[in-house]
Amino acid sequence: MKADDSDSSPSEAGVTVVKISGTLLDQPADLDAFWRSVANLADSGPLVLVHGGGKQATALAERLGHTPTVVQGRRVTTDLDLDIVQWALCGKINTQLVAAAKQHGLRAVGLSGADDSMLQVEKRPAWTVDGEQVDFGWVGDVVGVDPDVLHHLVASGRVPVVAPLGIDDAGQVYNVNADTVAQNIAAALGASKLLLVTASGGVRREAESAETHLDTCDADMVATGIAEGWIEGGMRVKVETALAALDSGVREAFICAANDLLARSHATQVVA
């Protein structure tokens, strides 16, 4: 079942969905600023946190002598990759984030999209990329969201911390891109805001130049950036999922830095 706006209870009006990458865990100063901002956000309304962890999954893979394959910002997930993703994201990162939330006075509950069949997926069909067929393995495309468990958690004042895994009708677990998970959860909850946290703090025409930062980015600009190559990889996924969120009824979508969650004064607002 995919929820629509009518499924959101009055206590969830104005829910904010925040997505962070595992990279933030390796940046103590930014992580502390992030949690202080999250605590302030939680004071003003219900909050759901979705996290990635590609960097940690890759590091663990390399320790095991395995080099992951990433295509257009999305990880090809073999049997071993799926094990690694579950170990890194559900085993370590999710627990670390819940513990950090406790340190900042938040009542957080860690779970994944597989819990209570929250995130329902199907195996991604092969893509044609640069003329070649790419089988992504155990990567899932979202076909439905049942946000019931999220409703219960936010209604009780808790902050769900969601790892990006999904499950199919047969009980097979899949790796799902975390930005995509955040977008689908935001849509299912009828969220007012989707905040995608990134190290750059927004979209830039030149990745290493803060002077090329964009205050806003619309669909035409996204298409231009992709065609010209300055929107690619993980940033391409972010802007595309932000546009999808707006199309599904989320009121606002921003790409921002960890210390800019509240003011969003240096963020890029993605607009339809």
TrEMBL record:
Residues that bind substrate: G53, G54, R75, N175
Localization per record: Cytoplasm
Site, as annotated: Transition state stabilizer: K19, K238
Known EC number: 2.7.2.8
Pathway: Amino-acid biosynthesis; L-arginine biosynthesis; N(2)-acetyl-L-ornithine from L-glutamate: step 2/4
Residues in Aspartate/glutamate/uridylate kinase domain copies: 15-256
Biological role: Catalyzes the ATP-dependent phosphorylation of N-acetyl-L-glutamate.
Family of this protein: Belongs to the acetylglutamate kinase family. ArgB subfamily.
UniProt protein name: Acetylglutamate kinase
Organism, scientific name: Longibacter salinarum
Lineage: Bacteria, Pseudomonadati, Rhodothermota, Rhodothermia, Rhodothermales
